[in-house]
Structure prediction request, 180 residues.
Amino acid sequence: MPIILFALLLFVVLAFGGVVLLSLALRYRAGTARRQGRRWVATMNLWATSFSAALFLCFTFLISFWLGPTLRFALAGLAVGGLLGLLGLVLTRWESHPEGFFYTPSRWLALLIMLAIAARLVYGWWHTMHRGVPDEQHWFLSASGTQLSVAVAAGLIGYYLVYAIGVHVRVTRHEKRRRN
Prediction:
């Protein structure tokens, strides 16, 4: 009986790992796909990302009363994500064709974002396995998993918010030029 339970547990762990790897690969693929710049899609994306960022900051502000400096981690993550969003706009390939306006996000930045998500997963696993005395560790290693999760999530939200603003501006500018 213990061998069957061990085999089942091993299967569940391997299946979970496979699902995580597959989701990361699909995330990379979706993040590098060529897209047509439509104004209504860019507007909806901008509104949804703005709402998400506002809700995230409100939630982070509330949990900072119980979990310490999570708001500081969130603001730092938003700042880093915003800078990466600006870099993403610079590295994006913009194409204007008679059939429409297209853009292709940077493969390297999509890979960096995917690796940030993967690194957060690995750090969470490592952090649970290696509990130590916080006074003897560097601040990064002694930060709670929640605070670093908040920072990574804020970085992703900051990146997508700035990127959504930039795409909206570029699509709107392209449509105005096309009308004139």
User: Anything to note?
Assistant: Strands lie at 35-36, 93-97, 100-104. The chain has six helices and three strands. The mean pLDDT is 85. Residues 32-179 form one domain.
